[in-house]
Automatic annotation (TrEMBL):
It is an enzyme of class 6 (ligase). It comes from Mediterraneibacter gnavus CAG:126. Pfam families: HGTP_anticodon (PF03129), tRNA-synt_2b (PF00587). Keywords: Aminoacyl-tRNA synthetase, ATP-binding, Cytoplasm, Ligase, Metal-binding, Nucleotide-binding, Protein biosynthesis, Zinc. Belongs to the class-II aminoacyl-tRNA synthetase family. This is Threonine--tRNA ligase. GO terms for biological process: threonyl-tRNA aminoacylation. The lineage of its organism: Bacteria, Bacillati, Bacillota, Clostridia, Lachnospirales.
Length: 290
């Protein structure tokens, strides 16, 4: 069971920090119920999901395993079994981790995933927490293979943690220069003058019809100014359209990654950007714009 739930936390005013630490945030909370012998495989599955998501964005992260605190609930046997399962899952996955002795939750041990931002700070985001107590409190039971009633074990898991914090880290990580598949505006259409607004609008309509997030700059400004402004906004692609482009039904492509990429047919450009987006590529900058 999972949900995107709104969470309120009364942080002290001096501890508030932009999107990174707020009093109200959205959490991708999910709960998995399982038998004791399923713990290890379920942990590996969740850890694999978290790794897949973080790798998609190119994030570096480290893992911390927190063990039984002094003020805890549950038997020694339960804690030992759960902690061994967490260790075993991390070892099987080949994930290096730091052990925080006594830093687990009162209801079970946990694994925390800490993302590194662009200036080297780390922020706790993903979490996998084992919980013996809630199934007990709610008197949850399942019928085992032996025909007897047994108590399940529950995992609390979040991948993003605070979605607001994750977005803040994401903005800083890319310094606003998002890869094409993430950019709020992927393409800016730049007519050279008012005479080419109609063709520019036609280009925009075809881009939008293909599901590409595009805008057009219709202002009566010099093309150099329009290009520079689009560069400052870190828009991945700029399509310059003028007399030659209209006549040949093409666009002149400038990118944030390689500068002037020459003229291309619009269908060719659309196919290329859709492939880049589908693959969720993070293109490297090969030419700095002046």
């Amino acid at each position: 069971m999972g949900e995107l739930g709104l969470v309120h936390r009364h942080e002290k005013s001096g501890q508030l920090h932009g999107l990174m630490r707020v009093r109200c945030f959205t959490q991708d909370d999910a709960h998995i119920f399982m038998t004791p012998d399923q713990i290890k495989d379920e942990i590996k599955g969740v850890a694999g999901l978290i790794n897949e998501v973080y790798s998609l964005f190119g994030f570096k992260y480290h893992v911390e395993l927190s063990t039984r605190p002094e003020d805890s609930m549950g038997s020694d046997e339960d804690w030992e079994m759960a902690t061994d399962a967490l260790r075993g899952a991390l070892d099987d996955l080949g994930l290096p981790y730091v052990v925080n002795e006594g830093d687990g939750a009162f209801y079970g041990p946990k694994i925390d995933f800490h993302l590194e931002d662009s200036i080297g700070r780390t922020w706790q985001c993903g979490t996998i927490q084992l919980d013996f107590q809630l199934p007990l409190r709610f008197e949850l039971e399942y019928t085992g293979a032996d025909g007897e009633k047994h108590r399940p074990i529950m995992i609390h898991r979040v991948v993003f943690g605070s979605i607001e914090r994750f977005i803040g880290i994401l903005i800083e990580h890319f310094a606003g220069a998002f890869p094409t598949w993430l950019a709020p505006v992927q393409v800016k259409v730049l007519p050279i003058s008012d005479k080419y607004l109609e063709y520019g609008q036609s280009v925009l309509d075809q881009l939008n019809a293909a599901g590409i997030r595009a805008e057009i700059d219709t202002r009566a400004e010099k093309i150099g100014y329009k290009i520079r402004e689009a560069q400052m906004k870190k828009i991945p692609y700029m399509l310059v359209v003028g007399a030659k482009e209209e006549e040949e039904k093409k666009v002149s492509v400038r990118s944030r990654f390689a500068g002037d990429e020459g003229q291309k047919g619009l269908e060719e450009f659309i196919a290329a950007i859709m492939e880049e987006t589908a693959k969720k590529e993070i293109r490297e900058v090969t030419k700095e714009e002046k």
